[in-house]
Amino acid sequence: MPTTRILLARHGETDWNRIGRWQGHADPPLNETGRRQAAELAEQLSGDGVAAVYSSDLQRASETAQVVGDRLGLSPAQDPGLREIDVGSWSGLTRAEVQERYPDGFARWLDGEIGHDGETREELTERVVAAVERIADAHPDQTVLLVTHGGAIRALRRHASGEPGDSIENCGTMALDRVDGVLAVSP
Q: Could you say which of 63, 84, 116, 159 is catalytic?
């Protein structure tokens, strides 16, 4: 039974990450720390047998993937299905600004719900799972790296295990295995 190993990596740091701005589909670039994190990720993955690199089409993920791809001798492909959740009108705002402008939505978010007017968790999950399945179908019995976003990784973890787990740090990784069409968190 073919197993596709899917390494998920969150993009490197942006200035918006540093100051706590909601990014969603906004497109800030990596900062110097983010570029250093990407280089460290590339070194970490250099012996893992990665056959292909994919990324979200947002700059912070595609820049991270390019640094890793250059180190691995691979050309990353962009897939918009790997984008972060669309946070609607919260995009570009800090947590304090969201709390001030959208107190009801912020309270729902604190309770674990979606409080913004962007995508729902279900829409995000459907989109990223479809992208991962498409990519896995193209790489049976291989290891692929997907450089994506924190929300997308939590959605995939929730889909594969039922548990969203903690947030993942910039350039942090986790692995999934796809066996017989089923995604599972890799041990």
A: 84
